[in-house]
Design a protein that fits this description.
The protein is an alpha+beta fold. It has a domain of 138 residues: Immunoglobulin-like. Helix content is 22%, strand content 29%. The chain is built from two helices and nine strands. A five-stranded mixed sheet has the order 2-9-8-4-6, with no helix packed on it. The chain has a four-stranded antiparallel sheet with strand order 1-3-7-5, with no helix packed on it. A hairpin with a 7-residue loop joins strand 8 and strand 9. It is rod-shaped and about 180 Å long.
Length: 234
């Protein structure tokens, strides 16, 4: 029992010392952190971390975006400057689909800030124009940093991304429409067109009656003349 107690006490002491040394090693060196965000200035959008395609900021071709890169030293303060982050450098290689607004021919944004003391940060911003036109295309922009302690015994580095997604849907062309033919509507006759003429043409039986009367009269006259001639001769 005593041996077991002694062993347990020794093990606990060893673990405590190890943890204390490890904690001291971490506490007395700079601790870096990088955060990259993006904002659509054209649409007056919000600054977004946009670390994944699902959280990507929407942008149309021609939109102006602003990227913000922040490098922090999150180590606790140290009076002897052991926790200062020195030799800091930043690089951001622009992906295809965006160009710098001020210098379109430059494809890598770099910076070399001064030492970053604990609790402080360095911020770099730059604007780009969206040139990609493919609808739904996700453009991932990555920024990286590196640094070290002032005695160069704690090299540190890291990267962070900010995604955008291009919104450029193909316009839908409506099908061609034809105007149906209008039905032909007969023009109603005017009152003048329906007026009865002063004299009707001689057609049909009405025109035959006067002719028949004339022939009857001629036949009667000829017969009467013939009778008178016979009487005279007798």
């Amino acid at each position: 029992m005593n041996k077991l107690s002694t062993f347990s006490s020794a093990t606990a002491l060893t673990l405590l010392v190890t943890a204390s040394v490890a904690g001291t090693a971490v506490a007395w060196h700079p601790q870096g952190q990088i955060i990259k965000s993006v904002q659509n200035l054209t649409t007056n959008g919000k600054l977004s971390d946009a670390n994944t395609a699902a959280a990507a900021v929407s942008a149309k071709p021609g939109d102006i975006l602003q990227y913000t890169v922040e490098i922090k030293n999150i180590a606790p303060a140290a009076s002897n400057h052991d926790n200062d982050m020195a030799f800091v450098g930043m690089a951001d290689a622009l992906p295809a689909g965006v160009v710098l607004v001020d210098t379109p021919n430059v494809r890598v944004v770099t910076a070399q800030p001064d030492n970053i003391v604990p609790g402080k940060s360095y911020v770099k911003t730059f604007k780009v124009k969206v040139t990609e036109t493919t609808d739904g295309k996700v453009i991932e922009n990555t920024a990286c940093y590196s640094g070290d302690s002032i005695v160069k015994d704690q090299p540190i580095n890291g990267c962070d991304v900010a995604d955008i997604i291009v919104s450029n849907p193909t316009p839908v062309t409506p099908p061609a429409t034809t105007t149906p033919d209008k039905p032909v509507v007969a023009t109603p006759a005017k009152a003048d067109d329906l007026a009865v003429p002063a004299e009707l043409p001689n057609t049909g039986i009405g025109s035959v009656v006067p002719v028949a009367g004339t022939l009857t009269a001629l036949v009667g006259y000829a017969a009467n003349a013939l009778r008178l001639k016979r009487r005279v001769q007798a």
